[in-house]
Amino acid sequence: MSKPQIVIVPGAWHAPFYMATVVSNLESLGYTIHAQQMPAVGSSNPPSDLSTDVAALNSMVEKAIDAGNDVVVICHSWGGMVTGSGLMGLSKAEREQKGKKGGVIRTGYMTAFIVDIGVSMMDAAGGKPAPWFGIQVSHLFPFCLDPNVLYNDLPPAEQQKWGEKLQCHAYDTFYAKATAASWKKIPTNYLLCEDDLAIPREGQQAMIEGVKAVGADIEVTSIKVGHSPFLSKVDETVAWIVGVAGR
C-alpha cells in the first residue's frame, strides 16, 4: 500500500525551510511532501482573515490527493488555525460519500492552535499580543522580539540564526475567527510540547480538553521539547509524523 502524501502548514513568521531537515528525512522514508510559503507570512499586502491561507492549504491538499491519494496534514502553531478552518469537504470520508477516491485521513497538530468555530488565535492565547510581539506597522508583526521564546531548547547561536530568518506576519490573521473545525470530522493527533514558551503546556492542554469535550477523535503525544521540535528534536518529530501517517 502506498504511503499517504504529507502536507505541511508552517506557523506564524516561519517559511517551510525551517522544516527542511524533517522534510528530507521523511522523503528518504518514501513520503511525498507538499509545503509552501503561506500568504500571511512575509507579504507586503497581508490578508485580513484566514480565507487566503485556507485557500492555499486546500489547493495544496487537492494537488496531493491528485487521482486518489490519501493525505495527512501536519500543522505547527498558528498553522493550526488554517488547518482547522480548512479541509472542508476534503476528508477521505466526505470524498468517499461523493464517489471520489483519496482524501485527508488524519491531521497532526504540532503544538498548534486547535479551536472551535468563532474562536481566534488571540482568543485562545489570552486576548492580547504577547510582550515579545514586535508591532511596527498596521497589519504586520514584523518580528518576534525574543527568539528564545520560539527556540528555547537550542543553543544561543542557533536561536539567533533562526530568529534572523523570521518574516513578518499578517497581524489580522491572529484575530481572525475560525470559520470551521475540520478536526471534528478528521481524526487528529496532537504533539504536546512540554517546554514550549510560546504556547505553554497548560494552553495546549486546555485546547486538547476542548477537543475531547465535544467528542472529537484526538490522540496526544507529549514530549519534553520547546516550541520548535522540527529544529531541536528532529528524530522525534519525524517519528511522530510517521506515526500520524500510520504507515
TrEMBL record:
Entry keyword Hydrolase: no
GO cellular component, one term: peroxisome
Residues annotated as signal peptide: none
Location (main, coarse): other
SUPFAM superfamilies: alpha/beta-Hydrolases
UniProt-annotated location(s): Peroxisome
The keyword Cell wall biogenesis/degradation belongs to this UniProt entry's keyword annotation: no
Any Pfam family: Abhydrolase_6
Keywords (A to Z) from UniProt: Peroxisome, Virulence
InterPro entries per record: AB_hydrolase_1, AB_hydrolase_fold, Sec-Metab_Biosynth_Hydrolase
UniProt record similarity statement: Belongs to the AB hydrolase superfamily. AKT2 hydrolase family.
Name of the featured protein: AB hydrolase-1 domain-containing protein
Organism: Cochliobolus heterostrophus (strain C5 / ATCC 48332 / race O)
